[in-house]
Description:
The chain is mostly helical. The chain has one domain (7-54). The chain is built from three helices and no strands. It has helices spanning 7-25, 37-45, 49-54. It is elongated and about 45 Å long.
Amino acid sequence: MKPNVGGIDRMARAVLGVVLVGLAATGTIGVWGWLGLVPLATAAIGWCPPYAMLGWSTCATKDTNAHR
């Protein structure tokens, strides 16, 4: 699996996931908050299946011609 989730995207997913899981754990938003595990997982592994299916990537691209 080629990483397709970049730095800012990973940070946003991690924050959103922690907030949702925290709210679910405290009973504030109910069981739907446990869906926050999905963005946490994609942030942890750096790969998002929908991004892969759509051919999207938020990873920075490396310019291989920069040193020529």
